[in-house]
Amino acid sequence: MGRLQEEGSSPIHSFRLSSVSAFRPTETGMTHEPNGLDLAMKLHYLKVVYIYSAETARDLTVMHVKGSLFQLFVHIPWIIGRFRRHDSGRLFIKCNDCGTRFVESQCDLTVEEWLRVPDRSVDESLVYHQPVGPELAYSPLIYIQMTRFKCGGLAFGLSWAHIMGDLFSLSHFFNLWSRTLACEEISWPKPSNLQRGFPDPTSVDREPGSIKQVDPVGDLWVAPNNSRMTTYSFSVIITDIKSDFPANINEFEILSGIIWKCIAKAGGKPVPVAITIIRPDPNGLKHRAVRNAQMINSVHVDFSVAEASLEEIVKAIGGATDETFMINELGERDDGVLDFIVYGAKLTFVDMSEVDFYEAKVKEASPTSVYCNVQGIGDEGTVVVFPAAEEEERVVTVTLPEDEMEKVKGELKKCGLIKALSNGE
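Predicted structure:
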């Protein structure tokens, strides 16, 4: 569960669990076969929170929400199925309509009161999360938490098994739900349009640096950690970070360079240094669907990031090497039974700045706030960048070992990326 979800320790309470499936049965015998890239994401989960104002959501009932999910799941029945294993041990999804877990809860605060906290990582307490396993046949792949605020506003918190698809997939799923809720007709790509093509690797004589094999975890899909991880979230204004760079330089690369330098200065890590960059594949967005279509890139430098100029760091990030093909091949190795981590195997920067979270409209109104992060992050940490409600802003979510976070926040304040707050955070 979320870090503040235990009864009595948070303003969120009165949890009630049920299940939601499709309104008509799936064809008998239907299955879904994950590819190597999907399998490499097995130990990771995605968390997204959408918050709607009272004016928008006051009249939206549980039955309204469930009714539109009943209809949506008919189009993508495999995400409400359950995992099984072939005789070889390779995973597949049996499309048996077991459904997703639906969680109702109440919050003693208004939406306005909830959003007063600058560090939006508090939103993780609006996401009910359980890992897949240890009994695969009974483990949902999606949890949807619907929290009613005191004022009548609503939060929808989604926990999503990454093996099914990336953040664009999750956003696409929720956008389709909002359209179904509005009684719009939705369409789904033909299976022939969903085949993912991987570019030939530039080099096949090495293992990808952006992924790490871990000891077998069996059927309880939890990423191993040697550190206790913590998360901090803040907002930045795009013009503030782009002012010293040419207009054609991507703001995500600039922001990643600034944060990478701050983390290096705080930790004093030696060279050589490598990071991972995860971004959407532009070619994979032509046919929106539920799948892993992200590009996983590696950046390796032979200079001190702490002492290098920001321009030099940003240039290195712009020259990242695409390792997606190699990761797909690695995920297929030994018929897909090996276990890996990607997020946090190296310090990982995730570019979600183009995800259309705010297109998930209820009564033609966009969410007041959206939050997202990754669950199951390795010890090197992850930085996720995604849109804010204001077009000129981005939200940054940083997850690092607990003993590093305060030093990193200090460096972020020194460089002006985050402001010193009155409450000392």
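Summary: Confidence is low (pLDDT under 50) at residues 1-7, 421-425.
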